[in-house]
């Protein structure tokens, strides 16, 4: 991982953009792929200026085009001499009930979210298996492999497919003796990106981010850690971990809560949004951005402050009732005395 050569698809916006910048800030040699050529050039300049050792190469490509993805891998190898990390972050979304979602749009989503990953994996592994080293990271989602939500059947189906694909790919690599190649699935929950503005919407309702959203930088840090220390599945963020634990303990309750939150907090009243196909077929272009404007960083800071205040209050109440020092303080002092 010394100045790694990293390929990132979906690098023009959201999580893909955050991942590219995160590797560049650590001196990575980043190859950027997306459909919006002029936006990629902008991201390449940001990456090149993020660290004195960082370099960036923009390669416009549509991940649904197998030949274009193969050309992306060839360009990355010719430029960097190897491919250390390949991050499949390109993805699109659809919101709408099953009977209101056009089948051709579902087909297009699966072509991007699933076949795009298949094309990326095949192109990356062709290089990594020759090197006998490399990390393939697929950005999936908690939605699909772990939990479900109404009006997002196509998206959830595609993300569940990625986890299954990665599981089987690991088995095949083990049988082939490619022990230097790792395959990892990263599973965030809601993230503060332009995803909801870019998604096709057939609900007739304005969409808000699922609370509380994580920052794309948090997901990017998880991807970088996974590249350094590969793990099969990485759940990102406290909200995602809480949902995972809750679903394991009480799946029916979690499904009911997610359904209610989606219906009443994530969607405005009917008639507040027109039908749109989003960026399913058109590049994000001028709407590409790192964040979606949901103030995730501020909300995260407020949640942490609230948790700390609650813990302090609970400790103070406990001290008053028992006449002893708060548990948190006593625990901290004991921890510091350990060798």
From TrEMBL:
This protein's name: Short-chain dehydrogenase
SUPFAM superfamilies the record matches: NAD(P)-binding Rossmann-fold domains (SSF51735)
Domain of life according to the entry: Bacteria
A Pfam family it matches: adh_short
Organism: Streptomyces gulbargensis
Alphabetic keyword roster: Oxidoreductase
Lineage: Bacteria, Bacillati, Actinomycetota, Actinomycetes, Kitasatosporales
Family: Belongs to the short-chain dehydrogenases/reductases (SDR) family.
PANTHER family, per the entry: DEHYDROGENASE/REDUCTASE SDR FAMILY MEMBER 7B, DEHYDROGENASE_REDUCTASE SDR FAMILY MEMBER 7B
């Amino acid at each position: 991982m010394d100045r790694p050569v990293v390929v990132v698809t979906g690098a023009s916006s959201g999580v893909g953009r955050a991942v590219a910048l995160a590797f560049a800030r650590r001196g990575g040699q980043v190859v950027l792929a997306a459909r919006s050529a002029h936006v990629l050039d902008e991201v390449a300049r940001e990456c090149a200026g993020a660290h004195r050792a960082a370099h960036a190469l923009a390669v416009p490509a549509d991940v649904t085009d197998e030949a274009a993805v193969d050309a992306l891998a060839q360009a990355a190898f010719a430029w960097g001499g190897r491919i250390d990390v390949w991050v499949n972050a390109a993805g699109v979304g659809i919101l709408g009930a099953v009977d209101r979602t056009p089948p051709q749009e579902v087909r297009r989503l699966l072509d991007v979210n699933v076949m795009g990953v298949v094309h990326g994996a095949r192109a990356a592994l062709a290089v990594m298996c020759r090197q006998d080293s490399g990390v393939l990271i697929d950005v999936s989602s908690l939605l699909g492999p772990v939990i479900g939500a109404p009006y997002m059947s196509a998206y959830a189906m595609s993300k569940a497919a990625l986890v299954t694909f990665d599981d089987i790919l690991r088995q095949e690599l083990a049988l082939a003796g490619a022990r230097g190649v790792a395959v990892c699935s990263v599973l965030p929950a809601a993230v503060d990106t332009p995803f909801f503005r870019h998604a096709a919407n057939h609900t007739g309702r304005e969409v808000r981010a699922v609370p509380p959203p994580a920052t794309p930088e948090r997901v990017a840090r998880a991807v970088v850690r996974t590249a350094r220390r590969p793990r099969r599945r990485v759940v990102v963020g406290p909200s995602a971990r809480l949902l995972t634990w809750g679903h394991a303990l009480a799946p029916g309750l979690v499904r009911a809560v997610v359904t209610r939150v989606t219906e009443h907090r994530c969607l405005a009243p009917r008639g507040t949004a027109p039908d749109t196909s989003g960026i399913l077929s058109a590049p994000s272009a001028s709407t590409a951005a790192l964040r979606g404007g949901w103030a995730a960083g501020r909300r995260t800071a407020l949640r942490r402050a609230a948790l700390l205040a609650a813990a302090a209050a609970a400790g103070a109440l406990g001290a008053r009732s028992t006449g002893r020092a708060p548990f948190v303080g006593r625990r901290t002092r004991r921890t510091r005395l350990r060798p």
